[in-house]
């Protein structure tokens, strides 16, 4: 018998290299700057997303996105070989080797199209997948006046929605709630809510691990209709969209200031808990100790040290680490701010129908 605790495949804290599949919209320079990297010679300006600890794949555009460890092992393989080490027993009992989370850095070099993502219920019914895509934005950098949009201000009938989508003009964006954002803001975007991200923000994004998007605005981005509507009948795809209204009071419940946390505290509104967790760690009055957990850790400011059973590790702004449950309690010290991105607690997340296999977002064809 092989002793898996000493095999090369055992879970251990790892730095994650940049992972930026080509996308249909511009961006990526703010990711390079944040990561402290210079632009590679072949940088084409269409690398707006850094997929962190990803087992998910792009729905179209080449199907890339899966992360690879520096050892050369693709992350789904690493997770299969030591699921308990990576995730801990309670997570595995509920979700198997599925991390149940996708984390990204996203740099909007131009405004993104108005789009929405299906709920778990819709994905299960129409896309053969347990995951929908509720997502959340943790704003790290924002140009002055940077704006995001979430939810229709006024309720639309199904016909009115279909008409707006048919027209493919500026009225679609104009029907949404604009939200001016600054660094330090966080916004939760529940599945179904139409949304857009304006030009000039770098966000840390947490989401359910799929790439299902209904691209309500598609023409000006040159997207094929099959891509825009997830290969579904257009009317069926539009049934996944929330018709509103999203009131000012409702919007307020979807927002939080993450930058004000001292010590350790949540980055996101409580409503995010069934989908993912994001914890801000900012040791102000002494070291902070964190319970063992699988986490994608993004160092957003300063520098300091992370200590665990995997040893001490100096970290600085721009570092991205994958910390396994087996690293045990993690102590954070120094003048540093980091965000710990984690799956939902096992008693809050969904039951998955095939909990032993990590899944990609690809629907069976
Ligand atoms: Zn989105």
UniProtKB/TrEMBL annotation:
<dbReference type="InterPro" id="IPR051804">
    <property type="entry name" value="Carb_Metab_Reg_Kinase/Isom"/>
</dbReference>
<dbReference type="InterPro" id="IPR011051">
    <property type="entry name" value="RmlC_Cupin_sf"/>
</dbReference>
<feature type="domain" description="Mannose-6-phosphate isomerase cupin">
    <location>
        <begin position="283"/>
        <end position="342"/>
    </location>
</feature>
<dbReference type="InterPro" id="IPR014710">
    <property type="entry name" value="RmlC-like_jellyroll"/>
</dbReference>
<feature type="region of interest" description="Disordered">
    <location>
        <begin position="341"/>
        <end position="365"/>
    </location>
</feature>
<keyword id="KW-0862">Zinc</keyword>
<dbReference type="GO" id="GO:0046872">
    <property type="term" value="F:metal ion binding"/>
</dbReference>
<keyword id="KW-0413">Isomerase</keyword>
<dbReference type="InterPro" id="IPR049071">
    <property type="entry name" value="MPI_cupin_dom"/>
</dbReference>
<dbReference type="Pfam" id="PF21621">
    <property type="entry name" value="MPI_cupin_dom"/>
</dbReference>
<feature type="compositionally biased region" description="Basic residues">
    <location>
        <begin position="354"/>
        <end position="365"/>
    </location>
</feature>
<keyword id="KW-0479">Metal-binding</keyword>
<dbReference type="GO" id="GO:0016853">
    <property type="term" value="F:isomerase activity"/>
</dbReference>
<protein>
    <recommendedName>
        <fullName>Phosphohexomutase</fullName>
    </recommendedName>
</protein>
């Amino acid at each position: 018998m092989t002793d898996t605790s000493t095999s090369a495949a055992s879970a251990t804290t790892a730095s994650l290299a940049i992972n930026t599949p080509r996308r249909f919209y511009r961006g990526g320079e703010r990711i390079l700057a944040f990561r402290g990297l210079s632009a590679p010679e072949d940088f084409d300006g269409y690398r707006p997303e850094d997929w962190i600890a990803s087992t998910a794949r792009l729905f179209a555009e080449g199907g890339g996105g899966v992360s690879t460890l520096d050892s050369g092992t693709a992350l789904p393989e690493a997770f299969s070989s030591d699921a308990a080490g990576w995730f801990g027993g309670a997570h595995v009992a509920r979700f198997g080797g599925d991390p149940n989370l996708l984390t990204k850095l996203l740099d909007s070099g131009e405004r993104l199209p108005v789009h929405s993502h299906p709920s778990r219920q819709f994905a299960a019914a129409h896309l053969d997948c347990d995951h929908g895509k509720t997502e959340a934005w943790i704003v790290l950098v924002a140009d002055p006046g940077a704006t995001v949009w979430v939810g229709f201000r006024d309720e639309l009938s199904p016909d009115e929605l279909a008409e707006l989508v048919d027209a493919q003009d500026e009225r679609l964006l104009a029907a949404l709630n604009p939200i001016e954002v600054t660094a330090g803001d966080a916004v939760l975007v529940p599945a179904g809510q139409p949304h857009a991200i304006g030009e000039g923000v770098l966000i840390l994004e947490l989401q359910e691990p799929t790439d299902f998007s209904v691209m309500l605005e598609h023409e000006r981005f040159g997207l094929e209709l099959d891509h825009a509507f997830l290969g579904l009948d257009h009317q069926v795809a539009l049934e996944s969209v929330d018709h509103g209204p999203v009131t000012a009071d409702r919007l307020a419940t979807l927002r939080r200031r993450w930058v004000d946390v001292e010590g350790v505290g949540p980055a996101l509104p409580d409503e995010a808990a069934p989908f993912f967790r994001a914890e801000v760690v900012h040791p102000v009055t002494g070291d902070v100790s964190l319970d063992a957990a699988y986490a994608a850790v993004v160092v957003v400011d300063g520098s300091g040290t992370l200590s665990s059973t995997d040893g001490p590790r100096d970290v600085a702004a721009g570092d991205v680490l994958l910390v396994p449950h087996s690293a045990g309690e993690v102590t954070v010290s120094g003048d540093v701010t980091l965000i710990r991105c984690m799956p939902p607690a096992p008693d809050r997340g969904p039951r998955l129908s095939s909990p032993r296999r990590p899944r990609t977002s690809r629907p069976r064809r």
